[in-house]
């Protein structure tokens, strides 16, 4: 399991990386982070970059659990993204419980997930800012992995992702 930082687009087992982005690639079990984007986030606060990394680690957990296989069905893509947000909430809670991060970490993470949401519940695949924060909060508030699995039960309530 690796983390690769890049400053220009690179080719991976999952295709070319994007700038201003982070991505978990199941093809080589690696997290890719645009270092210039992360540097900019770290200039604003200390925890947003960690929350993004926790979200990407969430995808690695999904891969280990076999949940990423669901990504082959487009209707599960949004649920997988929201579940990774829930995992990021679990991680944040665990770090606060051991005193590794302060109360501002929670505010920083919530602000990021709210701003990184899709503009509408009918477009794209990450969920709206409100949905992303709600699932982050579900993980943070419960501290329970089973809560993050419930995103798939509630997925039916989410609009279908339009075919492209």
Characterize the structure shown.
The strands form 2 sheets. Strands 1-5-4 form a 3-stranded mixed β-sheet. It has a two-stranded antiparallel ribbon with strand order 2-3. It is globular, with a radius of gyration of 15 Å. Helix 3 packs antiparallel against helix 4 (103-115), helix 3 (77-97) crosses helix 5 (129-142) and helix 4 packs antiparallel against helix 5. The protein has helices at residues 35-44, 48-65, 77-97, 103-115, 129-142, 145-149, 151-154, and strands at residues 2-6, 11-12, 15-16, 22-25, 30-34. It is built from 7 helices and 5 strands, in the order βββββααααααα. The longest helix has 21 residues, at 77-97. Helices cover 52% and strands 11% of the residues. The model is unreliable at 157-164 (pLDDT under 50). Strand 2 (11-12) and strand 3 form a beta hairpin. It is mainly alpha-helical.
